[in-house]
Amino acid sequence: MNAFALVKELGVGVEIRIDYFKDFEGKYEHDDIVSAKEIESVIRLLMANGDDNEIRKKAKEMKEKSNAAMKEGGSSYGSLGLLIEDVISNIS
Q1: How far apart are CA 76 and CA 65, in angstroms?
Q2: What pLDDT, on the 0 to 100 scale, is given for residue 87?
Q3: Is the dihedral of CA 15, 59, 63, 83 positive or negative?
Q4: How far apart are CA 22 and CA 40, in angstroms?
Q5: d(CA 40, CA 79)
Q6: Is-contact 42 16, C-beta < 8 A?
Q7: Within its chain, how far is the Cα of 75 from the centroid?
Q8: Contact 34, 16 (CB under 8 A)
Q9: What is the rounded CA–CA span in Å between residue 11 and residue 92?
Q10: Which of 3, 21, 59, 80 is 20 to 30 Å from 70 by CA-CA measure?
């Protein structure tokens, strides 16, 4: 999973800076380093409003779903078991 998916598609992250510009010829001067001030502002945004923060709510919901999938009887648990069985049965 990449940063774009976390921020734009799932809504469980905050965009600091997404630069799609790539200067292969070295013609332009630009700074790729994220400043401490930018990081601080994003952390403050994430920490604001406690449990009422939508991003934090979505992250907590995703955590709960992920935990349920990994428990016995969950979809990921079952899929992993099937994969292991398949690998073992196909060993020559």
Answers
A1: 11
A2: 95
A3: negative
A4: 26
A5: 40
A6: yes
A7: 20
A8: yes
A9: 45
A10: 3
The candidate with the shortest Cα–Cα distance to 33, out of 20, 47, 45, 16, is 16
What are the DSSP E strand ranges found in 1-92? none
pLDDT tens digit at each of 92 positions of the chain: 787 788 888 888 888 876 656 667 767 666 667 788 988 998 898 888 877 888 889 989 999 999 999 999 888 998 998 999 999 999 86
Q: In the numeric block, which tokens belong to residue 79?
A: 């899929």
Per DSSP, the three-state class of 72 is coil
**DSSP 8-state class, residue 8:** I
Nearest residue to 19 (alpha-carbon basis) of 5, 4, 8: 4
How many CA atoms are closer than 13 Å to the CA of 31, on its beta-carbon side?
A: 3
- For 69, the domain range is 3-89
pLDDT at 19: 60
* DSSP H helix total and E strand total for the chain: 4, 0
